[in-house]
């Protein structure tokens, strides 16, 4: 028997998919349960919603019971990816996050102003990324909670100061990361590790490149250090290359944006599905709703790698900007 779900149900389902906290997910799920008609065709779906409500209620309760210190350092992921901004004291991490996001970390000319992580959201075209300003890291001391935050982040941004000892900062930062088994993607991992390493997508930002001399210093640093990760000179003060930095985040993230449409309707280009590069049509269908995977017959695709409306099967590899019309 078909479920015959009303439009209000799918609106609540969309709010559920977009919810970032267990409390908000429970609220949307309860609304879906209330809207759903009661008959044999919805019995399985109702049971599934009740299981999800129970799971997220438990998560919400566990979240409330953690210690004050843990809750301060454990930041729930929001947006398409979570990016931890790390680096030595006074490199400009707080200024960068304040300039790009809606966050208000404390900014001052003296070091160690930041003493706890501060998140903020930065817009890139029609999606958002979460940037996290973190306390300075050094060989002398790093709070264990910061190590956990770095390991869980999707991307690490190492921010250094071109007007300080740039080589020393770079080498010390790498040493600190090695001590917590974190290695930028593309760098060498020691063979004698006794525990698994954390391989992280990483961007190197060199801040305070304010003059032609600083630009020359940056070029010399890149040549001498032999860095193998994406690097960019910026000036937070002069807002130089900040837009390019946000674009670099998207490039490094390994994500693509695809759009869905109903037959005969236009796609909403403001609401993409953000999925890993090389994802298939089947994986997109599962992301939309797990029941779609079994019911999906085929899809029509509009994009750069196909002709408009081309019919594809579940194993089609999606491309950036594809518009997908699912047929079930």
What are the salient characteristics of this protein?
single chain, 328 residues, alpha/beta, Methane Monooxygenase Hydroxylase, Chain G, domain 1, Rossmann fold, Ubiquitin-like (UB roll), 3 domains, seven-stranded mixed β-sheet, five-stranded mixed β-sheet, 11 helices, 38% helix
Topology:
Elements: H1 7-18, H2 22-35, H3 43-65, H4 68-73, E1 82-86, H5 93-100, E2 118-124, E3 127-133, H6 144-152, E4 155-161, H7 166-179, E5 182-184, E6 198-207, H8 212-225, E7 231-233, H9 242-253, E8 255-260, E9 273-276, H10 281-288, H11 290-295, E10 298-302, E11 310-312, E12 323-327
Helix pairs in contact: 1-2, 2-3
> What is the highest CATH level, the class of the largest domain?
Alpha Beta
Would you report the number of β strands?
12
Number of domains: 3
Radius of gyration: 23 Å
Here the CATH topology of the largest domain equals Rossmann fold
SS class: alpha/beta
Report the biggest beta sheet as strand number plus sense, adding barrel if it closes: 7 strands, mixed
Helicity, as a percent range: 25-40%
According to CATH, the homologous superfamily of the largest domain is P-loop containing nucleotide triphosphate hydrolases
CATH architectural grouping of the largest domain: 3-Layer(aba) Sandwich
Shape: globular
**What low-confidence regions span 5 or more consecutive residues with pLDDT below 50?**
66-71, 110-114
Number of helices: 11
Would you tell me the overall average pLDDT?
Answer: 88
Order of helices and strands: HHHHEHEEHEHEEHEHEEHHEEE
Q: What is the CA-CA span between the terminal residues?
A: 15 Å
State the oligomer. Answer: single chain
Q: Strand percentage, roughly? A: 15-25%
């Amino acid at each position: 028997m078909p479920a015959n779900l009303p439009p209000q149900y799918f609106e609540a389902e969309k709010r559920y998919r977009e919810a970032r906290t267990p409390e908000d997910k429970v609220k949307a799920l309860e609304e879906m349960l209330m809207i759903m008609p009661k008959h044999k065709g919805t019995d399985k779906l109702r049971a599934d919603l009740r299981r999800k409500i129970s799971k997220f209620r438990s998560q919400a309760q566990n979240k409330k019971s953690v210690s004050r210190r843990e809750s301060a350092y454990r930041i729930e992921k929001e947006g398409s990816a979570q990016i931890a901004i790390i680096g030595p004291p006074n490199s400009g991490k707080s200024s960068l996050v304040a300039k790009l996001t809606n966050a208000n970390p404390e900014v001052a000319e003296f070091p160690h102003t930041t003493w706890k992580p501060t998140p903020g959201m930065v817009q890139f075209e029609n999606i958002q990324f979460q940037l996290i300003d973190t306390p300075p890291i050094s060989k002398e001391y790093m709070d264990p909670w910061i190590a956990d935050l770095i390991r869980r982040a999707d991307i690490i941004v190492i921010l250094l100061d071109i007007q300080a000892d740039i080589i020393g900062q770079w080498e010390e930062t790498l040493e600190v990361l090695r001590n917590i088994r974190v290695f930028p993607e593309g760098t060498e991992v020691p063979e004698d590790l006794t525990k698994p390493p954390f391989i992280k997508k990483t961007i190197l930002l060199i801040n305070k490149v304010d003059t032609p001399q600083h630009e020359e210093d940056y070029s010399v640093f890149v040549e001498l250090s032999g860095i193998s990760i994406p690097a960019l000179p910026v000036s937070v003060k002069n807002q130089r290359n900040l837009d390019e930095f946000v674009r670099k985040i998207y490039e490094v993230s390994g994500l693509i944006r695809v759009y869905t449409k109903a037959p005969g309707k236009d796609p909403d280009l403001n609401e993409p599905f953000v999925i890993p590069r090389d994802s298939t049509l089947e994986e997109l269908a599962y992301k939309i709703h797990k029941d779609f995977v079994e019911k999906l017959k085929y899809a029509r695709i509009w994009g750069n790698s196909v002709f408009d409306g081309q019919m594809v099967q579940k194993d089609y590899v999606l491309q950036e900007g594809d518009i997908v019309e699912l047929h079930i």
